[in-house]
Amino acid sequence: MPRLNRVRASRLLLTIATMPALAAALGAGAVGASPRENGPRDACRSWHTRTLLTGQGWLEDLEFDGRGAITISALTQGRILRLSRNRRLTTLVARVFAPGGERRLGRYLFFVTGDTLPVKPNGTIERFDLRTGGRIKWARGLSMPNALVFLPSSDAVVSRDVGSGTGLTRVRARDRRHPQLNWARLDDTNGLAVDPTGRWLYADRTFSRDGEVDRVSIANPRVVQVVGRLGTGVAPDDMTIDAAGNLFIAGAGNGRIYRLDPRTHASCSIARGLNLPTSVRFGGAGWNARALYVTDAMGHLSELTLH
Known about the structure:
By secondary structure, the chain is mainly beta. It has one domain: TolB, C-terminal domain (Neuraminidase), CATH 2.120.10. The protein is built from 1 helix and 24 strands.
């Protein structure tokens, strides 16, 4: 079977296999249930949704290349796509095994691979040079890595949404051959974001019953605190953070985007009616910096703007 078909079949198997666990975690009839919205009124204004891209299969994550384009992890296509400001869609990186989370540092785009079943330590972090097109495996030995962030130290952290035992994995920039499993003991993690102060790493948990969002002390990862509960049926996926420290989280379970203030624990949905949203980012160079850009598992890229 061709690799692309294997990845598609694995992702379908993942969806099927995890639905019973999701239902059990969220409670009977919880999928699609509305969480309690308790955010400040002005912060909870509805955002307008505009579709920019369709028909691309499961889209797992996105990033901005700093040159006016969006890069997109097309998981079932096995490619990193590039969408220019004039809507021209091309392949940036071909032959990628189940791409997941992306992050750009300067001229380099980092992305994880192996975000699919069966769970094996065959996942990697790859580094792609946006100037030259050079590509290397930056780190290996990861088990189904999902989201990716870089800490102020330049070390990487990846989440793992399915399975247990590895927690959050830290990959030290100076020792990339030995990933630190269970750097923070939080299983079932998905979205990741670093606080603007550099003190905290935020993580959400897709299969938690109440849409749990936590923070981990970067200096002492044994310190883990709950900062929000988005409600039943949310199944939180990837997230982003603004300069004030507010989190914006994709609710894959009910098609919403949430705003969470981790200081007050206040949260609310700011957009509804999306199809299995997987990732959310504020606009980068060449795009609306005040807009949110969202990928979903039904092949759409959407732009959210305030009314």
